[in-house]
Structures are given as C-alpha cells and as structure tokens.
From TrEMBL:
It comes from the Eukaryota. Gene3D superfamilies: Spindle assembly abnormal protein 6, N-terminal domain. Pfam families: SAS-6_N (PF16531). Residues 23-148 form the Spindle assembly abnormal protein 6 N-terminal domain. This is Spindle assembly abnormal protein 6 N-terminal domain-containing protein.
C-alpha cells in the first residue's frame, strides 16, 4: 500500500504543472489473454492502471513492473466516448467518465471474485482491448465496459522509463532520510551505538 500511495503521489506531482489530473493510479490484478483466443484461460498479472483526465480526453495507461516495455494506453475524447456510450449502453456522461472508470477499477481491485479485468492482446502485440466483466452470481458474465488500447511509441516508453527511474530515486532519497533520522534518534538515546557493530559480554 505504501508503494501504491507513493506512485499516486509521484504521478500527481508529474502533472501538477499541466491541466492533467490523476484520477487513479494503482496496481490491479488483470488477466492476460490472446485476442484471437478470448475464451482461453489467461495468466494473472498485476498491472499499473492510471486514469488521467485532461481537458481534451480521458486517458487510460497500463504498465507493468515486471516488464518496463509493457506500455499501452487508451485515449477517449468526447466524440469517441459518445460512440462507445451508444455501442455499450453506458449510462454516465463524458464529464463523469474518468471518475466512473476509476471506481470500476477500484471495484475490480477489491472484489476480485465478482469483477474481472481482462487485457486482450492482439497477435501483433501492438493493439488490444481492456474489458471489465462482472461474474453475476457465478453463472453469468456481464460485460461492463470495453476499451481499445494501443502500444505506446518508443518515445513514450522511454519517457515512462525515465518517470519510473525518478520515482525509484525519490523513494530511495525518502527511505535514506528515514534511516538517517532513526539513526540520529538512536544515537541520542545510546551515545555509543554504532550500526552494524555487536557487543560481546563476558
């Protein structure tokens, strides 16, 4: 939980200078399946889902801590959302869509037996879709939403890698500060304390 909170804080800081707003940034367990074989059981993997609200679109970004080159996104502007809304019978307005998507992902995260997120990857490895499905009483699956995604460009992947490096660096600096503070407290209470040393009593 500490790591997820720091990720949310980090990505929020990254967009403070712009009109972007991080609505959701957490790891969610997601099934990975082939688009050409959607009924085959997939592998479960924790993916970092980020929902970003911008003045022109709602952006869903997916990345993996296990594979730094795994980077997909869906960009939904007003026109594409209205089309998706008609096709999928969505009830929320475009203005409420980012928060609605964040709530759906939170539900998947908390109620994994009832709600499932599935990432279908195409044969080219560059396109796919993310579906959120409800397991209704164990005998019927209901499609809640389906979002087409595309792989990030090489430049976008490099930018994301730089973000991750900055995040790790920030975490290391914060942890080192906590260690130094703890050492200072211990040293004040035990003047002869030396980290890593041991005292043998006879």
């Amino acid at each position: 939980m500490l790591v997820q909170k720091s990720k949310f804080s980090f990505y929020r800081k990254m967009t403070e200078q712009t009109a972007e707003k991080i609505v959701f940034a957490k790891e969610v367990t997601c099934q990975l399946r082939k688009l050409e074989a959607p009924s085959e059981q997939g592998l479960n993997e924790n993916l970092l889902f980020r929902v970003i609200s911008t003045p022109s679109a709602c952006v869903l970004k997916l990345s993996s801590e296990q594979d730094i080159y795994f980077n997909f996104s869906a960009v939904i502007d007003r026109a594409s959302y209205e089309e998706m809304r008609r096709e999928q019978n969505l009830m929320v307005t475009y203005a409420d869509f980012p928060s609605h998507l964040a709530k759906l992902l939170t539900t998947v995260q908390r109620e994994q037996k009832q709600y499932i997120a599935i990432f279908f990857v195409g044969a080219d490895g560059l396109t796919g879709k993310v579906d959120i499905i409800e397991n209704f009483k164990g005998f019927k699956y209901i499609d809640i939403i389906s979002l087409p995604v595309e792989s990030a460009t090489q430049a976008e992947i490099q930018e994301d890698i730089a973000r991750r490096y900055a995040l790790l660096r920030e975490q290391n600096i914060r942890l080192q500060a906590q260690v130094n503070e703890l050492r200072s407290v211990i040293k004040n209470r035990i003047p002869n304390f030396a980290p890593g040393s041991s005292t043998n009593s006879l």
